[in-house]
Every structure is written in structure tokens, then in C-alpha cells.
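idk why but the lab printer keeps eating my pages so im just putting this in chat instead. protein + adenosine monophosphate:
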Amino acid sequence: MSFPLAPGARIGILGGGQLGRMLAMAAARLGFDATILTPERDAPASRVAARTILADYDEPAALDELATTCDVVTFEFENVPAAAVGRLTARGVAVAPGERALEISQDRIEEKSFANAVGIPTVAFSAVERLGDIEAALATLGTPVLLKTRRGGYDGKGQVWVRRPSEAKTAFSELGERPAIAEAPADFRRELAIIGARGRDGEIALYPLTESHHENGILRRTTTPARDAAKAWPEAERIAVSLLTSLDYVGVMGIELFERDDGRLLLNEFAPRVHNTGHWTLDGCEVDQFEQHIRAICGWPLGPARAVRGVEMINLLGDEIHAWPRYAAEPETRLWFYGKAEARPGRKMGHVNRMMRAQT
Ligand code: AMP
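predcted complex ->
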């Protein structure tokens, strides 16, 4: 495949959620056709894409069809089987970001070990295979520890605090006795996020730092620019650049950070895809994260990542979507709804971007 891809080329997207939906919309605006591979009928992304292949991610015939009909393939969530990406890559398909970034991000131990190896600090952690490992972790890391499944957790699911050895057994069974990670508390004063992009030629664009606010492990809102961003910027930039370059990354990456009282930054995790903490860019930037991702994977020059205004992004979870008339009546608010039929509790149904002060 030769890059840059011209408008008219076909982009395959593994995953059919809201991130795939906003990617497909950005792709369409640049003249590309998106094909969604998803096991979900009427998925949010399918409703705006040119084509959908309805199949499980590891179905060989579906992957082969994607391979023969698309010029480049990407993914919109990190729990697609790495083997699926491997199969596409083996068939000569350009998959961006690649299998390596996907594999590392799927396993919390791999992810933190990789970060530490390239000079990026994280909380102290240890691997948990069996109950005794939790007791050992409490002894070495101190109390409490946050126990998380190694793989497959998202939005605070698969996480439980262990405050004393007597809680270990219940916590482990709550996680289904699956392989886990025990993490020391991050003791953060706030959470920050940075969206980074790297093009096929190695060019890097970083968006301004965002402050993210979680409740029960789920992102509720972000505010951008982060307060006192200038102080945190050099280290955030170093972390982002080192992740993007050491993975030889192509595309947009979401990077979540903890800021400690002394101002030190720790990497929480990175997502090899567009990210909820970057939704503010849809209305805060000249080129948003979705267009940026499409540009990067298609071998286009990256667009400017600077903010043109401050934005408060609010996630609408479950029933909160029913408040849409109130948001629709606010002149400074932009609405992004995902077209999901069922407003289950905690489900991300849409988000709104409230415009704030102008940037200088
Ligand atoms: P994660 O799924 O790992 O991103 O975790 C979701 C949220 O849980 C984070 O955004 C934090 O608010 C919180 N959290 C995760 N890891 C830790 C930790 N080691 N210490 C304290 N809070 C944490």
C-alpha cells in the first residue's frame, strides 16, 4: 500500500462503538469510506459508516474480507483480539496503530513494565496469579492496594481495593480469580490526560493537557486547558513523545496521568486509540482527535493540535441522556450523541462540549 491514501480509499475499523462512529464521520468528511467490523447489530458506528461486516473479531472469513476490501485498518477499542490484528498484518494489511501497541496496552503488567523500561514512572505494582500473591503484595507495596484484572477491565470495572490481608480472598473472588495486578495507591491530587498523535513519517502532534474527573473509575467530565498546565507540560510531553516513538506508533493515542502533590507525573495507562479524554477536541481544536487519527493512518500530514478555545466536556451516562433538551437549549454547548437505543445505567450515551473562554 502506498501512502498517502487518496480520498476514496477504504478504511476498516475494528469495533462499532461511539469512537468508531466519530472516526467514521471524520473519515467521511475527508472523502474516505469506513467499513466497520463488529459483532453488534445496529452498532453506533454502523449507523454512519459506508459498510458493516457483522461478525466476531476473530472470525477468519470476516477478517479476510476486511483485508481484501480495505486499504488500511484501525481499531476503536483495545480489547479486540491481538490475533485478529496479527492475521490482518500477516496478510499484508497496513494496520495502525500496530499489533505491538495493542498487545502491550491489553495487559496492565506488560503496559507498566514497558513504561518503566522506557523511563516512564508508574505506581509500584506486582503481578497476582494466586491468592498468596495478594498477601505478598500487601507486604511489599503496603496497604491498601488496588487489585485490577490484568486484562479486559475498563471504566473502573474489574477493580477492587484491598485494605488488609483478610480482604484478599473476597477481592480475588470478586475478580473471578483471574490474573491480576496489585497497584500501590497513586495518591494523586488530580488526573490529567494528553492526546498525542504520530504520523507515518514520525511527525508528532500533542494536544493541550486536559484535567479529567472520574467517579467510581468512570470518566464524568474533562476541562481543558488544565489549570497550571505549563508546569506539568514538559514532563507530560516527555512521556507522550517517549511512548509514541518507542512504539513506532502511527495514529492517535490517549494517555492518562496522575499528578502527585509534589507535581510528579505517573503514567496510569495509555489507550492505542482515540480516547474519551480527547472528545473536547471536537469543538476545542481546529483538527480534532478523530480527523487527526484518520490523517495519521492514511499517511497525511498531521493537522494543528492547538486549542482555539477552552472546553468542558461532560459525559452523559445512562438516563442523563434524557436531559438533552436542556443542553440543546444552551447556545454555547455542542451535542454529540451516539445513537444507542438502550440507556443502561453507566452506559456512555453521548457527551456535550461546553465552550469556555477563548485561548490566547
Ligand atoms: P484505570 O481503569 O486503570 O484507568 O482506572 C480508572 C480510575 O481509577 C483512574 O482514572 C483513577 O481515578 C482510579 N485509579 C486507577 N488506578 C489507581 C491507583 N493505583 N491509585 C488510585 N486510583 C487509581
